[in-house]
Design goal:
This protein is of the alpha+beta class. It has a 4-stranded antiparallel β-sheet with strand order 5-6-3-9, with no helix packed on it. β5 and β6 form a beta hairpin. The longest helix has 26 residues. The radius of gyration is 25 Å and the shape is elongated.
């Protein structure tokens, strides 16, 4: 039977321990949720893609279009950055009041957290192609560029 020096055994055990920690760290990164507030292995906030942070859908109901945003926790939309462009049959949307916020980029603004519903009256029930523009940020200080989405309803 051949004996190995103690420092060789310790080096192998240290390597095995480090490998285990690395594997556990990689596993936790892969299973970490994409919700803001969580951090990756470098302790950086996880920032969602824009369409996940601000999920926008449009529903057509009885003479109006309804814009619905589901806003993830830790994210917000700017009230004054929301615009709807289309034909003359679309009327200007009435946006509900937002929460006041002092923003590091735009100063004092109104913003929406969690969700936003905007009713967009239209003059006829015919299909309409229109564009929705909006911009939002993460509370972590990361702002998305202005977004444009086109819908036909």
């Amino acid at each position: 039977m051949r004996f190995q020096p103690i420092h060789s055994l310790l080096r192998r055990k240290s390597f095995a321990v480090m490998l285990t920690f690395f594997a556990l760290g990689a596993f936790s990164m892969g299973t970490q949720g994409a919700e803001f507030g969580q951090h990756n292995a470098l302790d950086e906030p996880v920032i969602l893609p824009v369409d996940e942070a601000f999920h926008l859908s449009v529903v057509s109901e009885s003479g109006q279009l309804v814009l619905l945003w589901q806003i993830q926790p830790g994210y917000y939309l700017y009230r004054d950055k929301i615009r709807v462009k289309g034909s003359k049959r679309l009327k200007t949307p009435a946006l509900p009041p937002g929460l006041e916020k002092t923003d590091e980029y735009f100063g004092r603004v109104e913003v929406y957290y969690e969700s936003l519903e905007v009713n967009l009256p239209r003059k006829a029930d015919e299909k309409e192609t229109f564009q929705v523009e909006y911009q939002g940020c993460a509370d972590a200080g990361i702002c998305y560029p202005p977004q444009k989405r086109t819908f036909t309803k």
